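Final report, closing paragraph on structural work. Over the funding period we assembled a curated collection of sequence-structure pairs, and we close with a single example.
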Amino acid sequence: MKTKNLIKAVFMTLLLLTAIPVSDWATEKVSETLLLQLFTQIPQTTGKNSISWLGMDLETVYKEFGVPQEVFCYRADKNEDDNVVFYYKNHIYLFLFENRVWVVRFDERFESEFLGLKMGMPREQVLEILGNKFKEADDSLVFYLPDQGFPVRLRLFFKENMLFDAYVYRGDY
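Its predicted structure, as stored:
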């Protein structure tokens, strides 16, 4: 049953990706230029508002970010915890569960600032900016972020004491 829901979610996502009425697909109304624009756009957004992305529905994601470069499934230990992930060319990943964003990831290639931080920033500087950490685990730090009607967390991963991966997520999942 979970596989059928995932297939349905991916299918619906592909339909939304086109942003073109089904009745226009096989007509001259759909130009090659329009399709090229739809499938090559890069979101112009930065990570500054990443907390507000949590809870976004699919329609809002497409309006704000455009079409993802890749869509893939993130397999969890339990089938019911699987996610659909939208990956964008600027190295933002949006993890969706039940058609809403619940995790935002910035990988080490992300070049913009997010929440006052930048990839490659030293651990000490991160602590100066964010203050007290909630907890420390291995090579990561977890912080509480402002509540959005649900708890929000930030988990930062470090390699050789330099920031290289970040997740903003709902703390109630």
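The chain has five helices and eight strands. Confidence is low (pLDDT under 50) at residues 1-44. We thank the funder for supporting this effort.
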